[in-house]
Write a structure and sequence with these properties.
Layout (H helix, E strand, L loop, with lengths): L10 E2 L8 E4 L11 E4 L12 E11 L7 E9 L4 E4 L6 E4 L3 E7 L4 E6 L17 E6 L7 E10 L8 E9 L1
Length: about 170
Amino acid sequence: APGGGDDLLNTWCGGSACEAVSQISGSGNYVSAPSSWYFGDPLAHNYADLSGAMELQIEAVDVAVEVGSDLQFWLKMEVEPAEVWELIGSDEVIVFAEDYLTIYINDGQAYETVYESFQPSALGPENTTNGEWELVTIDLTGWSGNTINIHFRFRCDDENNTYMGVHVDDIVLV
């Protein structure tokens, strides 16, 4: 199966948003052989010559009521860290990221963001898994009984893109 032995089988990538999403193999590049999905340049192993949005889409996933309420995948990521701005005279903090991974759900009526890599509930402003694979679990209970499309989108600007990029492997419902 693409991206490793356990990925959802209806994963695809096509169109201009997917030109830089590929399968990559080799030691450390996957959790389950033979490869993972990679957002970046597989020859340079960074995303220096890329900018814009790269997207991997999983179509028509049925989310069962009693099982399959969580999306789970392995993530290995190193991108430009986000900027953190503290507002003067306030406890409010603004996190601004140029390069980040977003996962959103399309249920046929609306798009909803369920993961942004730079958020404190994810990787935080560092935007890295520090060279390690990290298991990510996203609750899909709100879509139980529905058919959804799951989108993995890596967005980057055209500056400071010499970081590794994003690997995603073993995308499953549990």
